[in-house]
Write a structure and sequence with these properties.
single chain, 13 helices, six-stranded mixed beta sheet, alpha/beta, about 10% strand, about 290 residues
């Protein structure tokens, strides 16, 4: 049980261990909830790491599961205490997708498909500001600035000199031709995308309109993989009012296979750079977006 991890991952690992103990006891979440006089949904949220867990919760659950080894109980109690610490993103206040940021911060690799916009880890500050302001028109300027700063802080993982995040991105042509801000802003964004695509731990591919229907037609998603073998991969799907996290092996496998089809249908790395350069020239001529 590693201690040098962020609170989101601590909660996730603790939840996995509590689920393992419940299953060893042969109990359902409903049975545990009845014993503790709580809702079944609380037990589920504790086990999937989406809810903060107290040391009292751990103590009560260990009692139900009849865990007699005090070293295990003490270790789980410490994990619960550590999981209530705050990650760097809490300094920015209430961030709707803070769970995802915690996972991304600890991930070893990230595969992203986006049909509408340039993914956040590859956005320039100007593009991010114009995009957020346009997507959330009722958001105060100070909150837009906060979101931009969070996005830029997230990008530190992909610029890190040691152990950077391995990033593979498939972008639909629509994301490149959708004008966000003015013409020069888009040219700068596309040039930045080309520059980033040349880093050794980055792979960027474009899925052109000419490919027609494809497996990602239903929308954006990301697959996160972690350095610790005990941390299962996660599929993240962003929503308007809530996000979806898929962790079952079957779900992750389906999205991984779908991503492999997207990779195969997209332009290769060299073709992608040439394609993006062509769209940047279209913007310069006023014929794009």
């Amino acid at each position: 049980m590693a201690s040098n991890v962020n609170p989101t991952v601590r909660r996730r690992r603790l939840g996995q261990e509590l689920r393992r103990l419940r299953e060893l006891k042969g109990m359902t979440a409903e049975e545990v909830a009845e014993r503790l006089l709580v809702s079944q949904s609380k037990i589920s949220r504790l086990e999937n790491g989406r809810r903060s867990i107290s040391q009292r919760d751990v103590r009560d659950l260990c009692g139900v599961y009849e865990v007699e080894d005090h070293r295990i109980v003490d270790s789980l109690m410490q994990m619960a205490k550590d999981s209530r610490q705050q990650g760097w993103w809490h300094a920015f206040g209430d961030i709707p997708y803070s769970v995802y940021i915690g996972l991304e911060t600890d991930a070893a690799s990230l595969r992203v498909y986006d049909p509408q916009v340039v993914p956040g880890l590859l956005q320039t500050p100007q593009y991010a500001e114009a995009l957020i302001a346009g997507a959330l028109p009722e958001t105060a300027p100070t909150d837009v600035e906060k979101r931009v700063n969070v996005r830029l802080r997230r990008q530190e993982r992909v610029r890190a000199a040691e152990n950077p995040l391995r990033l593979w991105v498939v972008i639909d042509e629509a994301a490149l031709r959708r004008r966000v801000g003015d013409k020069q802003l888009m040219i700068d964004q596309l040039e930045f995308l080309i520059e980033r695509s040349q880093l050794p731990h980055f792979t960027v591919q474009v899925l052109p309109f000419s490919m027609g229907a494809h497996p990602g037609i239903n929308g954006q998603y990301a697959i996160l993989e972690f350095p610790d073998a005990s941390d299962s991969s996660v599929v993240y799907i962003e929503g308007v009012t809530s996000d979806l996290y898929l962790e079952k092996a079957n779900d992750v496998q389906k999205y991984s296979v779908m991503y492999e089809h997207l990779r195969a249908q997209a332009l290769n790395v060299d073709q992608t750079r040439e394609f993006i350069t062509g769209i940047a020239k279209d913007y310069a001529r006023g014929t794009a977006g």
